[in-house]
Design a protein that fits this description.
globular, 129 residues, alpha+beta, two-stranded antiparallel ribbon
Length: 129
């Protein structure tokens, strides 16, 4: 099994592949800072961060697009919980983060694309902690 270098990757669903975006020093610490000091995203094997591009939904749903984006993020994250359970991993969805800091961390503009949700994934410790 081959691993991935530490960094930020983007998932491209049409091609079902990951694209390396960037890496930098102290990436884990910067992520922890963006989530108000919550340590798990910085220590996890992987942290999934969902972003939204509202214009992709607004043409169809109008003002309801933002509601649909939140619902869809919740559905995807629920599936992550199910996948984690199936492989004996743990996750914890996080909605408490500094919006501007998270968008800067991801190098997205915060207007046309912005972070909406994240979830670190890792091994469950034998002692339950």
């Amino acid at each position: 099994m081959r691993g991935l270098d530490s960094g930020v990757y983007r998932y491209l669903p049409v091609g079902h592949r990951l694209v390396f975006e960037f890496a930098e020093e102290r990436l884990d610490e910067k992520l922890v800072e963006a989530v108000f000091g919550q340590p798990y995203p910085g220590r996890a094997a992987v942290t999934f961060i969902w972003t939204a591009l509202p214009y992709r939904m607004e043409w169809r749903y109008g003002l309801a697009a933002h509601k649909v984006l939140a619902i869809d993020a919740g559905h995807v994250c629920q599936n992550l919980y199910l996948a984690c359970e199936a492989i004996g991993a743990g996750t914890c969805a996080i909605a408490a983060y500094d919006q501007e800091a998270m968008d800067r961390f991801l190098r997205i503009d915060g207007r046309d694309e912005f972070a909406v949700y994240l979830a670190p994934v890792g091994k469950i410790r034998a002692d339950g902690g």
